[in-house]
Design goal:
Chain lengths: ~425, ~300
Amino acid sequence: MHGVVVSTARPGRPAIAIACLLVVCGLITGCGRREASDGAVRLVMTTAGGVKERDIYNQAVSRFEAQHPNIHVRILPISKDYYRKVLVMIAGRDAPDLMWMGQSFGEFAGRGAFMDLSARIAEEVDLDDYFDQPVGWYNIDGKQLGIPFAIDTDFVVYNKALLDEAGVEYPTDDWTGQDLIRKAKALTLDRDRDGRTDQYGYRGNVDSSAFGAEIISADGKTPLCNSPEMIDYLQFTLDVVHKHRICPLPGDVEQEGLDTISLFRQGKAAMMRFYTWSLPELRDKCADLDWDIVMMPKFAQRAHWASSQAILVSSETPYPDEAWLLCKYFFSDEFQRIMAFRGLPPSRKVAEKIVAENDEAPENLAVLLKAADYLYPFPRVAHLQELMEHFWNAAESVDAQRATPQEALQRAEKAMWRTIERRQ
Amino acid sequence: MPHHREVDTINRRSGIAFAFLTPNLLGFMVFTFLPVLAALGLSLYRWDLFHAPSFVGLRNFVELLGWYQEDGQIHANDPGFWKYLGNTLFLMMGIPVNMAAALFIALVLNQKIRGRVFFRTVFFLPTICTGVGVMLLWMWIYNPEFGLLNHLLSLVGVEGPSWLRSYAWAKPSIMIMGLWGAMGGTNMIIYLAGLQGIPPELYEAADIDGASSAAKFWYVTLPALTPTTFFIFITSVIGGFQGGFDAAYVMTRGGPDGATTTISYYIFEHAFQWFNMGYAATIAVVLFALVLLVTLVNWKFGGKRVQYV
């Protein structure tokens, strides 16, 4: 029979199909909860770092599990975008029981991500031997949230051969900013006389704390960047590029994809600012170079940028006792010693032993011990990155010579106040 | 009345159709529709991802789009939003250039020349290369000390700028990279298909009338391509509003001084770097409204100029 065929399918079928789809979607999005195990406690720990760190954590966990057969630990190594991935886990109500924390500790701690370990630490841990500052970095509002296992800081690496070639004396730990400029000028060379610098005397800038400048108060409620000290600092960053010509634009050094160690190795810079986490790669890739390290030069004061690493217990963990047992291992002397290849141990005793036993480059590893008395980390505040964004924008506008230091810092201070008001 | 067998056939076909559509619909629901609905709702909340969201009503929108008076001057509550919207619109100025370049390449590759397949492949290669890898490559090209571009400029006595670190050159640098990738990309393929869909009789009629190559292009090719151009323009504008994230994230981190921060990167910063998920959702909703408005305007006024052959 010809003509229009009218469908007599039940009218509700498409609606039923869509309803089923919605239910399935809901189930899928609701997935991801860890099931309770059969008597054994299962902990999840997130870690950052490269292959070597991953192996270290795996071995540490194996030793721990051998001593605690009823606790199983699953390590989630995250080598890229660590904080974002942990953030998504927390937002998805699937926070790991323990997590590695570095520079962003304050932002997570300020939002209640970590368990208060004050009572446990007071009872079970002897902190007398620790450097004063680093332990205090993990005390937020009177709560001790953890103890670091490594301190990161900066130092200047210098190529002895290039200094010898230019007849420049090696820098010493008591050198000043003027010494840096003088030496770097003698080390900045246009070898092929094409009008372009082939070797810079210094690359990497210095920390603003060396000028006595601060960006934000310790409680994160008052911008401090608009100060004479900060103006001096930003003027210095301009002068090293445009007046003294000992350094390229700061952004070029930190541009991602630019291998700073290769720059040093190829003699593109006689002196460079590096950080403790670069030590393994420096030892590996610059094994055929004669290099050493020295403290950051003194300007208004001696200062070393600092950060630290710790394994902390989540405030959401359903297994606080077991998590604490594992956490304790990760600031033990043994673990600090293992991780000393890329950071300074916070225990003075362990740090001094590492320095005393050092038989590889750098010869002057004692720099890290001395730097421990001059550490200046970023404040541990909840909105640090958002506030720092205003300061970095100001610094970049000065670098690009779009604004004077005074104008840029006034703008940054105003923007910081707005952010502080909005986030209260 | 349809026979039972016909009804069964219709039902079976409907079932088969749903079965084939389900994976796509499932993906759309889970990864697009539900998140968009969630974002709409989230824009009315303050949420730092650690605690439960707290309802703030339209406060986020006031913070984003409102203003205040100080010292007799009007100031935006969020000056960054307007600056980054400006950056986004600036980068979108490359759209007509990219379209023209794609059309030009398509015209050339539509000719019967030797090695046509080879050239089509070569021009399309940037599109299939991994975005991040290409951007890392361009970072090396743009490096002011060791980069290829400044080296070539130095050969003709020109000192190149610090491309990605220069406030004036950062956005043009990204536009140049975009042009390189876009001129042989998907738009070129779409134009190629459009060119091959033009009836040859039109060109034969033009030949009979003694039209020159330029006249044929202007009076036959371009009008015949208006549906294709309209489609490419609409999709490019939508993509332009949403774009700029990759380059900002990989190459410049939004700098220098916010010069390369686009709206999409600003949303990312608020959501995943500054823990302001509710505010990020608000920006996303405003962006959605803006894209919808612009698309409707384009559709209303641009659609009138489309000629179908």
